[in-house]
Amino acid sequence: MGELSGKKGFIFDLDGVVCIGKTPIDGVRETLAHIREIGGKVRFLTNNAANSREHYVRKLGGMGIRCERSEVVTSSQGVAIYLKNRYRSGKCFVIGEEGFVGELRQKGFEVVEGKEGERADFVAVGIDSGFTYEKLTIALRAVKNGARFIAANPDVSRPGEEGLDPGAGAMVAALEAASGVKPEVVIGKPNPMLFEIAVKGMGLRRNQVAVVGDRIDTDIVGGNRFNLYTILVLTGITKRADLKGLKGEEKPKLVLNSVADLKGLL
Ligand SMILES: [Mg+2]
What we know:
- With 266 residues, the protein is α/β, with parallel strands linked by helices.
- The protein has 2 domains: 9-47 and 189-265, HAD superfamily/HAD-like (Rossmann fold, 3-Layer(aba) Sandwich), CATH 3.40.50.1000; 87-186, Rossmann fold.
- It is built from 9 helices and 15 strands.
- The chain has a 6-stranded parallel β-sheet, with helices on both faces. A 5-stranded parallel β-sheet has the order 7-6-8-9-12, with helices on both faces. Strands 2-3 form a two-stranded antiparallel sheet.
- α6 packs across α7.
- Magnesium ion (MG) binds at residues 13, 15-17, 214-215, 236.
């Protein structure tokens, strides 16, 4: 862990760090350009399982932030990698959106619906704006039939355009309540699994990598658990007043007002 100097890889959370909704944080482009100039590697990492990696390449591109598909890590990708490594193949019933289905298919999983869903090997749950009683019914029956229940991320709500929106965790909780079964694994932060994918993808060691996030309970706790150098920025959900009383793995190594301030430190 140690110092910031000498870090060769930087993992950025997206919302609240790189952008807020569709608006880039002031100075983020300059910081990213500087990291690339000095030969550093970057990864953009999100707990959101709804979208494909291509979606984020386009979204960031639209804000003038150049990035490659290989530089994006999402929890839907994390679920697909987890299932592939552990179970190789099988049928999935998905409570989730197109980006999630796409990641599973790319790893060779068959995505099934309706009655066939009740006999799936896996029920994968992420945020689903088309969540219905019918989907919950299929998922419930599948889990009762022995399907493995995998959750993309734990976030119960998230800021939306017009107020709070329910997150994947709310759909996970519905299935958990109905079935009496807890997910076998929750892939997203604070589970370090996505950080592991990012660090491996950069070909670096953990002590060469810093993570930049705006949430204590996911970015900072997850990063500390995985022994990364953790940087908290105050442009998102955490405010300076929230820093009092942080203990142990909740404590970031460094607090910055914004990702813009990182440039001057590298
Ligand atoms: Mg965030």
